[in-house]
């Protein structure tokens, strides 16, 4: 269909956005399923208060990954085919995700101490089970924590039990790596506005995609109305 420059730009943006979104969703969904059904971690999903944070974390990972994948499928289908129905579903799902992101950011800011404590417990559960089982899915999860937060294990750089999952840095940086539970607690206690900003920044990106979707839908509707009738 005939789209003007703005419409074409929005179409390209939405296609690229949803490709990246789909990759993120697949990574989250795949890791979540691996942790859920791996023979080493499947038993954690029995009623056990000691692994409650792990169960909740993995469940959220699977659910969020599935939702992101679903949103990306509708978004790419709607943008590539200039399909109004696909774009309408995509915009509704995206709006819900944006609202959830904003609400999560505000909640994290207001209850930063509780969120930090729960995330630290989740980390310690993953750590303990990795040391005990050595599951590759747990190794990936620990590596994500260690590289994003630039920390290592429960005692810092001297923690040889998870050394393979810690950041690969210079000798001095390696020796000064802090313990991860401390970093997590400090992050949510002292940098709560920054954490909220990350949530709000993600929501802003979703809203930008929502605006592009609205512009593209208007362009498609306009081209339909102006199409000659035979």
UniProtKB/TrEMBL annotation:
Keyword hit for Glycoprotein: yes
**Out of the domains of life, which is the source?**
Eukaryota
Q: Give a yes or no for keyword Disulfide bond in this entry.
A: yes
A Pfam family that the UniProt record links to this protein: Tetraspanin
Which InterPro entries does the entry link to? CD9_LEL (IPR042055), Tetraspanin/Peripherin (IPR018499), Tetraspanin_animals (IPR000301), Tetraspanin_EC2_sf (IPR008952)
Q: Name one GO biological process term.
A: single fertilization
The record, for Gene3D superfamilies, names: Tetraspanin
**Which keywords does this chain's UniProt record carry?**
Cell adhesion, Cell membrane, Disulfide bond, Fertilization, Glycoprotein, Lipoprotein, Membrane, Palmitate, Secreted, Transmembrane, Transmembrane helix
Q: What GO cellular-component annotations does this UniProt entry give?
A: extracellular region; plasma membrane
User: Using the chain's own numbering, where are the disulfide bonds?
Assistant: 152-166
Q: Where are the transmembrane segments?
A: 12-34, 54-75, 87-110, 194-217
Location in the cell reads: Cell membrane; Membrane; Secreted, Extracellular exosome
Q: How does the protein's chain sit in the membrane according to the entry?
A: Multi-pass membrane protein
Function per UniProt: Structural component of specialized membrane microdomains known as tetraspanin-enriched microdomains (TERMs), which act as platforms for receptor clustering and signaling. Participates thereby in diverse biological functions such as cell signal transduction, adhesion, migration and protein trafficking. Regulates neuronal differentiation in response to NGF by facilitating NGF-mediated activation of NTRK1/TRKA receptor tyrosine kinase and subsequent downstream signaling pathways. Plays a role in the inhibition of TNFalpha-induced apoptosis.
> Family assignment?
Belongs to the tetraspanin (TM4SF) family.
Oligomeric state and partners? Interacts with SLC19A2. Interacts with NTRK1/TRKA.
In Swiss-Prot or TrEMBL terms, this protein is called: Tetraspanin
Originating species = Oncorhynchus tshawytscha (Chinook salmon)
Q: Which gene encodes it?
A: LOC112258737
């Amino acid at each position: 269909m005939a789209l003007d420059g703005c419409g074409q730009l929005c179409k390209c943006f939405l296609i690229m956005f949803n490709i990246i979104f789909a990759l993120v969703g697949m990574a989250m969904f795949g890791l979540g399923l691996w942790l859920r059904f791996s023979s080493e971690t499947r038993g954690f999903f029995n009623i056990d208060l000691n692994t409650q944070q792990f169960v909740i974390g993995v469940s959220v990972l699977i659910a969020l990954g599935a939702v992101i994948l679903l949103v990306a499928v509708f978004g790419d289908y709607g943008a590539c085919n200039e399909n109004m129905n696909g774009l309408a579903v995509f915009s509704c799902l995206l709006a819900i995700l944006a609202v959830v992101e904003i609400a999560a950011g505000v909640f994290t800011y207001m209850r930063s101490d509780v969120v930090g404590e729960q995330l630290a417990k989740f980390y310690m559960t993953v750590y303990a089970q990795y040391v005990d089982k050595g599951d590759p899915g747990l190794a990936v999860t620990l590596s994500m924590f260690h590289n994003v937060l630039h920390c290592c294990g429960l005692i810092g750089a001297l923690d040889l039990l998870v050394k393979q999952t810690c950041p690969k840095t210079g000798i001095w940086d390696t020796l000064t790596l802090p313990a991860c539970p401390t970093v997590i607690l400090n992050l949510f206690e002292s940098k709560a506005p920054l954490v909220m900003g990350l949530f709000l920044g993600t929501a802003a990106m979703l809203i930008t995609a929502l605006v592009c979707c609205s512009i593209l839908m208007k362009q498609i509707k306009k081209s339909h109305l102006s199409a000659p009738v035979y």
